[in-house]
Amino acid sequence: MDPFLQACKKKLQDAGIDNAQKEIHWFLEKTTKFSQTNILLDNFNLNQLDRSKLLNFVKRRTKHEPFQYIINCASFYGRDLYVDPNVLIPRPETETIINILKSEKKQYSNALDIGTGSGNLAITLSLENIAHNIVALDKSLKAIEIAKKNSVYYNISNIKFLKHDFILTSVNTKFDLIISNPPYISMKEYNQLDYMVKNNEPVDALTDFEDGLLFYKHIQKSLSNLLTNNGIVLLEIGLEKHINKINKIFSNYSISWHKDFNGNIRVIKISNV
Predict the structure, then answer these.
(1) Mutual orientation of helices 3-14 and 20-31 as an angle, nearest 10°?
(2) Would you say the C-alpha torsion 258, 90, 104, 111 has a positive or negative sign?
(3) Higher local confidence (pLDDT), 46 or 144
(4) According to the 3-state scheme, what is the secondary structure of 166-226?
(5) What's the whole-number average pLDDT of the chain?
(6) Residues 250, 271 contacting (CB under 8 angstroms)
(7) Is there a contact between 196 and 64 (Cβ–Cβ < 8 Å)?
(8) Burial 30-46 (b: 16+ CB within 10 A, else e)
């Protein structure tokens, strides 16, 4: 490896970045003209601009700024999305919602995505032909602008993005599919989060500032006005220790639990009994 790249790698390692070499490779793939193969084979030469960009990346990364925010890109369900600190970084665990829907091989007429963030779930619903018409809500105008930007990139026309605080304002339309990755971290749990997450990602996309159950309680109260008779709801959850509490919240509905790729219970599916 080039001595310059070795020095960059060491700075990252010294800062506790475990995947230092891989992150350098990923960064170069995103920001230079070199192919993945050339980078892996160390068959490339960086010009001064490339070196300057890499040095800036290392400087930001050693301060534990998330990789995805530095390159303004995160992958979800095999697609790249624009992200910045105004939206949560999409996690692979959230893909569980899409996997459940894909396995059922059913198309939905009207879908609602609550707290859309970067638009990752709504956009995937559209591109995977899971839903025909989609409404995506977020209380953050900046998040809505980012989600719209991502949908324009993929030339999507069947998603309506709305600035809307679901907790404060009711929705007066019924949907046969409702999905959400809500802010499910309690304030106690939030205070114990890794500082890279806590110091960079939007706080109100992570926690409800209460016990982590506020969203589930609110959607349960709203379901009679939101869900069609044959409709379903898929909600991501956080820690498995909350399962019993969430079961009680939705005790009047038919529910099932689904695991993510790590084998952790990640999604609750809710339907009318």
Answers:
(1) 120
(2) positive
(3) 144
(4) CCCCCCCCCEEEEEECCCCECHHHHCCCCHHHHCCCCHHHCECCCCCCHHHHHHHHHHHHH
(5) 93
(6) no
(7) yes
(8) eebebeeeebeeeebeb
Cβ proximity of 15 and 62 under 8 Å: yes
pLDDT in tens, 175-233: 999 999 999 998 888 888 888 888 899 999 999 999 999 999 999 999 999 999 999 99
Q: Against a cut of 0.85, is the pTM above it?
A: yes
Residue 273's pLDDT band (cuts 50, 70, 90): low
Residue 44 has what pLDDT? 82
Contact criterion met (CB below 8 Å) for 205 and 192: no
134 within 8 A of 159, measured Cβ to Cβ = yes
Local confidence band at 39 (pLDDT 50, 70, 90 cut-offs) = confident
Which residue has 């008779």 as its token pair?
229
Strand partners, 259: 265
Question: Beta strand 265-271 with 254-259: parallel, antiparallel or unpaired?
Answer: antiparallel
Length of the chain: 273
Question: Using the 8-state DSSP alphabet, how is residue 240 labeled?
Answer: G
Q: Which amino acid is at 271?
A: S
